[in-house]
Amino acid sequence: MLNSKKKLHEITYGFQFRNAVKKLPLGQIKYHFRNYKKYFNENLSKVNEKYFLETGAGSGIHTAILSFLVGKRNIIHSMDLLESNIKKINKFKKIYKLKNVSAYQHNFLNKIKTNIIYDFACCHNWVQHTALPEKCLKNIFDKIKIGGKFYISTYHENFFRFTIAFIARQIIKSNKRKMINYLIKNKNLIFKRDLSYYNNRNDIHFENLIDDFSTPYMFLTNYNRLKKFIEEHGFKSLTKNPKIDKIKFRDNHHLKMGFVKIKNKRKKNIKKCFVDIDNNYPIMKSNGSFKEINNLTQLLRKNLNKKSYDDCSKFLLKLYLLRAKMNKSKSQNKIINIINFLKEEIIKSK
Q1: Inter-residue contact 274 to 134 (CB < 8 Å)
Q2: Which of 142, 193, 269, 307 could form a disulfide with 197 if both were Cys (CB 3.0 to 4.6 A apart)?
Q3: pTM across the whole model
Q4: How far, in whole angstroms, is CA 288 from its chain's centroid?
Q5: What pLDDT was estimated at residue 102?
Q6: Where do the domains of the chain lie?
Q7: Exposed, middle or buried: residue 247 (CB in 10 Å: 0-12, 13-18, 19+)?
Q8: Do residues 36 and 254 make contact, with C-beta atoms less than 8 angstroms apart?
Q9: DSSP class of residue 242?
C-alpha cells in the first residue's frame, strides 16, 4: 500500500477509534457472542486448544470479545495494518488481562508470516477498505486448515447508504485530513440534533460518516458473488443467503457469512468479486434515477471543486443528514429526495 494511503487510514481510524479502548458494554459483548456462534456454526465456549486469527482487528474490540468467549484454553492472533491499532489491542490486553492474545502488525496484501495454520479466522468489516480485497482474502484462506472455519462481515452493494457514500466520495476534496477537521468543526452547525435521535446507532453516527466518506478505498460485493468466490477457494457455506426486499430503497444491510474449508485450492488467477465504488459502481451507470443522480453529482462536483473546504464540508454534512432523516424508510421517495436535494445544491453552488 502506498504510504499516502496508509496515512489516510491512520487519520480516519485514529478519529474513529479515538475512544475505543474502554470497558465494553455487556450488550455489545452478547451481540458479538451470538455472531461468532452463528457464523462459525459452533459453540466456541466449548472448544479447546484451537488457534484463532482475528484479521483487520482495528482497536481490538472484536479480539477482546472473542477472548472472553473462547477462554484461556485457546490462542488468538490479532492482526492489523496500523501500528496505532496494535497499541490499542495491547491496551485491551492490559485492561482485561488477555493472556491468550498476541497482537501483530501486518498488511494482508502480503502473505501471513506466522507458522500457524488456523482453526478459525475472522474478517470483520475491513477488507472492503483495502486496495485488493480478493488478494487479502486469498492470503487469509491459505492459513486456514482443512476443517477450519471462516467468518466474514463486509459491505453489501446497492443499498441507500452507498448511494450517499458514492455522492460524497465524488465530491470530497483531496486533502482528507483537512476535510475531516472541517467536518468536525461544522458538525453542530448542520446536525441540530445528536445523531442518536435517529434511533439507529449501528448505522447512523458521525464515525460512520467519516468511514464512508474519507477512507482511501471502498469496495462492495453481494452474497452470490462473495459466496461463489470463497467456495472456489475450497470452502463450503455454513450460512444461507437471506432474502432482502426493496434493496435500492433500504438504508443498509450487514453482509455476514460463515464457511468451512473442505479442501486446499491453489488458484493462480484471482477473479474479482468486489466492485470499486469510486471508479466502477455499476448501479450509478444504470438507466433511470441512478443515472440522473450520477449526472447531477458530476455537475455539483465541478461547482464545489471551486469552493472552500468549509463549504464542501457543510454540503457533506447536509448529505449525511439527508440519509439520517430517511434511514428508516423503504420508499423510492428516498431517491426522489436525493435528486431534488442535488438540484437545489447545484443552484446554491453556482
Answers
A1: yes
A2: 193
A3: 0.91
A4: 28
A5: 96
A6: 3-157+219-275, 160-217+277-349
A7: middle
A8: no
A9: P
Run of H or E including 155: strand 144-155
End-to-end CA distance of the chain: 38
**Cα 32–17–279 angle (5° rounding)?**
90
Annotation: CATH topology of 3-157+219-275: Rossmann fold (3.40.50)
The answer on pLDDT for 11 being more than 60 is no
Which residue has cell 423510492?
332
Helix, strand, coil percentages (3-state) for the chain, rounded to 5, are 50, 15, 35
Residue 13 has pLDDT above 50, yes or no: no
Cβ atoms of 129 and 193 closer than 8 Å: no
User: Which grid coordinates belong to 22?
Assistant: 474502554
| Nearby residues of 156 by Cβ (< 8 Å), 6 or more positions away | 220, 221, 222, 223, 252, 253, 254, 255
Q: State residue 168's pLDDT score.
A: 97
Burial 108-143 (b: 16+ CB within 10 A, else e): beeebeeeeebbbbbbbbbbbbbebbbebbbbbbeb
| Residue 151 phi, psi (nearest 5) | -125, 125
What digits encode the pLDDT tens for the residues 205-239? 999 999 999 999 999 999 999 999 999 999 999 99
